Amino acid sequence: MTGAPVPPGATLGFLGGGQLGRMTAIAARTMGYDIRVLDPERECPARPVAAHVITAPWADAAAAAELARGCAAVTLEIEQIPRPSLEAVAAIAPLAPGVDAVFTIQERARQKEWLRANGFPLGPFHTVRDADGTASAVASLGPSIVKSAMGGYDGRGQVRVRTAEEGAAAFTRLGAPVCVVEAFLDLDFEVSVLVARRADGLAVSYPTSRNHHTDGVLTWAVTPSGVEATREAEAQQLALAIADRLDIVGLLAVEMFVLRDGTLLVNELAPRPHNTFHHSERAHPTSQFEQLVRAICGLPLGATEVVRPAAIHNLLGDLWTAGEPPFAAAMRVPGVRVHLYGKTEARPGRKMGHLSADGGTPEEALARVLEAYRALVR
Ligand code: ATP
Ligand code: MG
Question: 138, 141, 150, 228: which is deepest, by most CB within 10 A?
Answer without folding.
Answer: 138
